[in-house]
């Protein structure tokens, strides 16, 4: 798979390992470029004697994610540093713009994030990053397509693709993009895959 790439967009350090670790390792071995985006630093996790403050724990968790990434074959990890457990308090537009910027720079072939339910455990950070990543893929594609074209395509898509049907999602979808022709969405259990065709 020459010149292919995957981007994983998650909430916490360790999300890249517990869920799709095997998938990451497999595709990295096949030569696919893997990048991981982690919105928080994991400051609210258990310290286990490794840290005495939330900030110190965040640094430890980021180091652990970097080490796991090297083992799995991740090419790049981007940390946004938002507070663990409080991603819903972060400016959603700001976080989305950061993801959009990375999507436009890296132009991944496939973007993987949590499903809308938050990876089965309904963690609010997981749900939030799912919404943000999904909206960011749509916004990044806006470079190529005008709103009326995207609106006409959206009307023809199955209901599953148009989830969630909130007004904010619809407006994000109408901005579609990443410099790739179109996208399809597949939800399987705990993750959502958006494929740029």
Give your account of this protein's structure.
- The chain has 197 residues and is of the alpha/beta class.
- The chain has a single domain, classed as LmbE-like (Rossmann fold), CATH 3.40.50.
- It is 44% helix and 19% strand.
- The chain is built from eight helices and six strands.
- It has a six-stranded mixed beta sheet, sandwiched between helices.
- Helix 4 packs across helix 5.
- The two termini are 15 Å apart.
Q: What is the element layout, followed by pairings?
A:
Layout (H helix, E strand, L loop, with lengths): L4 E6 L4 H4 L2 H9 L3 E8 L13 H19 L3 E7 L9 H15 L3 E5 L9 H18 L5 H10 L2 H4 L4 H7 L9 E6 L2 E6 L1
Parallel strand pairs: 1-2, 1-4, 2-3
Antiparallel strand pairs: 4-6, 5-6
Helix pairs in contact: 4-5
Measured distance between first and last alpha carbons: 15 Å
Portion in helices: 40-55%
Number of domains: 1
Biggest beta sheet summary: 6 strands, mixed
**Mind telling me the CATH class?**
Alpha Beta
Core attributes:
6 strands; disordered C terminus; single chain; 19% strand; alpha/beta; Rossmann fold; 6-stranded mixed β-sheet; 197 residues; globular
């Amino acid at each position: 798979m020459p010149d292919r790439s995957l981007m994983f967009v998650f909430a916490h350090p360790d999300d890249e390992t517990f869920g799709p670790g095997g998938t990451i390792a497999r595709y990295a071995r096949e030569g696919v470029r893997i990048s991981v985006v982690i919105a928080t630093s994991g400051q609210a996790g258990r310290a286990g004697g490794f840290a005495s403050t939330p900030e110190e724990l965040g640094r430890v968790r980021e180091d652990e994610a970097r080490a796991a990434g090297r083992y799995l074959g991740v090419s790049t990890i981007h940390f946004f540093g938002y507070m663990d457990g409080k991603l819903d308090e972060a400016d959603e537009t700001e976080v989305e713009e950061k993801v959009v910027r990375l999507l436009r720079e890296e132009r991944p072939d496939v973007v993987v994030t949590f499903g809308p339910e938050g990876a089965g455990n309904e963690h609010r950070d997981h749900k939030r990053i799912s919404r943000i990543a999904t909206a960011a893929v749509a916004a990044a594609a806006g470079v190529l397509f005008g709103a009326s074209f995207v609106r006409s395509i959206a009307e023809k898509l199955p209901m599953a693709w148009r989830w969630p049907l909130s007004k904010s999602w619809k407006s994000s979808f109408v901005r579609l993009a990443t410099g790739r022709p179109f996208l399809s969405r597949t939800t399987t259990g705990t993750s959502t895959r958006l494929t740029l065709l």
